[in-house]
């Protein structure tokens, strides 16, 4: 079928390559870090503390990151953040590879990584409309999702093997190197700042972002729903998932399950390059509810086959929901506000994540990991479907025909 349209544009190709390199390294880290902490500590809550150490500073600085990404060239923001993340991951790898496990040291590296992520995430979501025309946004997002999940298909399984055969520290080291390579590639990407905010203060930019965010009903309604979705998703999948898997299917199989889920997202990403859906946002919410399937299976029947099948369903649904949401945001929010809207979206969506990460262990100790996982799945599905009761959400449509480029 030839070269995909977005990849015919040099700026997008350069950005796409940098993202692919970074993602190939990062996809191994969750499995490696989770089992490194679990193997080195007998305290179930330590993993949640390490994960929260990354999430809390990211949340605290997300709005600042969104304002910065709308005020300064997003390529520069991404370059600095990637280089910094490379350093933090290499330090974490050194801690693990030398056998000097230290919970405070890992908390410190994850804290610094969270600070950098606060600037990376809004810039990543705001930069795509600067790289491709409006008519190519869905295709560009599907290609980025495909790259993200090609990495996730291979990364977790490889990390699981490394954990069993050598040490997860090598996977984290590879992540650090990939960040550095991505930073170098992004050095060649030159983009101007958003013209409307180049002279604004960061604080004023945050206030203006809130003013616009609260005036868009479909936007804040979806974000509010994902606050609840992410409490359930991260608490069960990130914290209880490895714990339940270690006692049932095993570490290597858990890595395979994560890869199966990523394969589902990959399949959907490829399909969405070709298939346009008019009510993409509404369909995306229905698909988001499917991500509850593996949580329920974890709580009721954590066998490998059932868990892998549920993970595939969740991947298919989550893949559609992710591309649908990014495209909807980029099509309906002006470019000079996009990173700030994305930062409010991320802040609202992720604010419940530390609660999920920190509460999963104590709840499992009190009620059992299985019942908590099942309840989390039910909560997730309900929260994802509630926004469909809103006429504002149902009214949002994706232009399936070619649209004019953004100014």
Provide structural commentary.
The structure is a single chain. The chain has 407 residues and is mainly α. It has 17 helices and no strands. Helix 2 packs antiparallel against helix 7 and helix 4 packs antiparallel against helix 5. The longest helix has 31 residues. It is globular and about 50 Å long. The C terminus is likely disordered.
What topology does this entry show?
Layout (H helix, E strand, L loop, with lengths): L9 H17 L2 H12 L4 H27 L2 H24 L5 H29 L5 H29 L3 H18 L15 H12 L3 H31 L3 H24 L5 H10 L3 H8 L3 H29 L5 H13 L2 H15 L1 H17 L5 H5 L12
Helix pairs in contact: 1-6, 1-7, 2-6, 2-7, 2-9, 3-5, 3-8, 3-14, 3-15, 4-5, 4-7, 5-14, 6-10, 6-13, 9-14, 9-15, 9-16, 10-13, 11-13, 11-16, 12-13, 12-16, 15-16
Summarize the structure.
The chain has 407 residues and is an all-alpha fold. The protein has helices at residues 10-26, 29-40, 45-71, 74-97, 103-131, 137-165, 169-186, 202-213, 217-247, 251-274, 280-289, 293-300, 304-332, 338-350, 353-367, 369-385, 391-395.
Reading the helices and strands in chain order gives HHHHHHHHHHHHHHHHH
General shape = globular
* Rg: 20 Å
| Through-space gap between termini | 30 Å
* Count of discrete alpha- or pi-helical segments spanning 4 or more residues: 17
How many distinct beta strands?
Answer: 0
Query: Would you identify the regions where 5 or more consecutive residues have pLDDT less than 50?
Result: 402-407
Taken as a percent bin, the fraction of beta residues is: under 5%
Mean of residue pLDDT? 84
């Amino acid at each position: 079928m030839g070269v995909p349209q977005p990849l015919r544009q040099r700026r997008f190709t350069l950005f796409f390559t940098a993202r692919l390199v970074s993602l190939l390294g990062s996809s191994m880290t969750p499995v490696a870090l989770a089992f490194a902490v679990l193997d080195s500590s007998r305290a179930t809550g330590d993993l949640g503390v390490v994960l929260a150490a990354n999430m809390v500073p990211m949340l605290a600085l997300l709005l600042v990151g969104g304002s910065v990404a709308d005020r300064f060239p997003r390529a520069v923001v991404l370059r600095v953040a990637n280089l910094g993340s490379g350093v933090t991951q290499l330090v974490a790898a050194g801690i693990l590879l030398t056998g000097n496990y230290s919970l405070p040291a890992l908390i410190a590296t994850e804290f610094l990584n969270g600070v950098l992520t606060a600037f990376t995430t809004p810039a990543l979501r705001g930069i795509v409309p600067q790289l491709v025309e409006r008519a190519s946004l869905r295709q560009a997002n599907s290609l980025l999702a495909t790259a993200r999940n090609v990495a996730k298909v291979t990364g977790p399984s490889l990390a699981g093997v490394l954990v069993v055969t050598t040490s997860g520290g090598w996977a984290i080291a590879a992540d650090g190197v990939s960040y550095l390579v991505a930073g170098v590639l992004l050095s060649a990407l030159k983009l101007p700042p958003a013209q409307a905010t180049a002279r604004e203060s960061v604080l004023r930019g945050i206030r203006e972002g809130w003013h616009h965010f609260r005036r868009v009903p479909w936007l804040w309604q979806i974000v509010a729903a994902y606050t609840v979705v992410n409490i359930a998703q991260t608490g069960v999948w990130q914290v209880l998932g490895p714990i339940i898997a270690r006692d049932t299917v095993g570490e290597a199989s858990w890595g395979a399950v994560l890869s199966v889920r990523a394969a589902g997202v990959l399949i959907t990403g490829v399909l969405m390059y070709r298939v346009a859906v008019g009510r993409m946002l509404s369909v995306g919410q229905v698909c988001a509810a499917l991500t509850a399937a593996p949580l329920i299976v974890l709580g009721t029947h954590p066998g490998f086959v059932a868990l892998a099948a549920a993970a595939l369903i969740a991947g298919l649904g989550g893949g559609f929901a992710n591309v649908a949401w990014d495209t909807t945001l980029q099509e309906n929010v002006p470019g000079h506000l996009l990173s700030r809207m994305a930062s409010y979206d991320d802040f609202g969506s992720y604010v419940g994540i530390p609660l999920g990460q920190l509460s999963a262990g104590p709840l499992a100790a009190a009620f059992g990991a299985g019942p908590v996982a099942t309840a989390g799945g039910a909560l997730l599905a309900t929260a994802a479907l509630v926004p469909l009761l809103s006429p504002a959400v149902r009214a949002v449509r994706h232009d399936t025909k070619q649209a004019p480029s953004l100014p």
